Amino acid sequence: MLSNLLRTTSRNLSTPPVVKVLSLDARDTLITMKESPPIVYSRFARQYDLEVDSDQIMGSFLKNYKRMSIASPCFGFNGIGNKSWWIEVVSSTLLDCAPDSEKGRVEVIAGALYNHYATPEPWKLVESDTRQTLQKLRLKGIILVVISNFDSRLKSLLSQFNLLDLFSMTVLSGEIGYEKPDEKIFQLVVNHFDLISPSEILHIGDNLKNDFHGAKNFGCRALLFDSSSSHNVEPFYCISRLSDLKLY
């Protein structure tokens, strides 16, 4: 089925243009966390003699993440910047879980966590053969792009995973000031490569709203990266491994 979806040509007006650009989400499509953040946060806190209950962290984190996303969108773009943004989110999370803690100490912990997530240590490739898969696609003439709601640390991470050089463009919400599913983020790719139509882009990501519907609503082709088959989307539009792609 995938080959039927992707091997389209532009020989006549009744068929859509061929896929020229493959755009990929990053988190949980290319790379993923080895451990859940509450476990990591509580472990780092203990290193600074601060006890926090990992069971309380996620709820507090989501609350503070949402608050800061409204107050200073796209990781503090054109404002406080992504490092200060993350330190505010994480330190507020820890203070919610340990309200008697000193603010200065939790900010030190938050800074240490920010630096930790800038390294490959807490991350891993979703698929061990990702580079080989992407190289094969490039050899077929496909332009590879990353479109991610992530801050500027992603470029260094992709470089350290030996992937960055494979991408002709890396579009990060933290560097441009808007994020998926905003159509402007996909329009950047159309403009950059002087595409005739958004349908010359195939976008793949794991988020139903931001990736699948965001891309389709703009006119791109889209596949949902759904390794666990957890979404109610027709199997025709899902993919569980990037290596399953058959372009031409």
User: What is the overall silhouette?
Assistant: elongated
- CATH superfamily label of the largest domain: HAD superfamily/HAD-like
Structural class, please?
alpha/beta
What is the total domain count? 2
- For the record, the CATH class of the largest domain is Alpha Beta
Mean pLDDT score: 92
Q: If classified by CATH, what would the architecture of the largest domain be? A: 3-Layer(aba) Sandwich
Outline the biggest β-sheet.
Answer: 6 strands, parallel
Count every beta strand, where a strand is a DSSP E run of 2 or more residues: 8
InterPro entries: HAD-like_hydrolase_domain, HAD-like_sf, HAD-SF_hydro_IA, HAD-SF_hydro_IA_REG-2-like, HAD-SF_hydro_IA_REG-2-like_cap, HAD_sf
Protein name: Haloacid dehalogenase-like hydrolase domain-containing protein 3
Describe the protein's topology.
Elements: H1 2-6, E1 21-24, E2 31-33, H2 37-47, H3 54-71, H4 73-76, H5 82-97, H6 103-116, E3 123-125, H7 130-139, E4 143-148, H8 153-160, E5 169-172, H9 173-176, H10 183-192, E6 201-205, H11 208-218, E7 221-225, E8 238-239
Parallel strand pairs: 1-4, 1-6, 4-5, 6-7, 7-8
Antiparallel strand pairs: 2-3
Helix pairs in contact: 2-3, 2-6, 3-5, 5-6
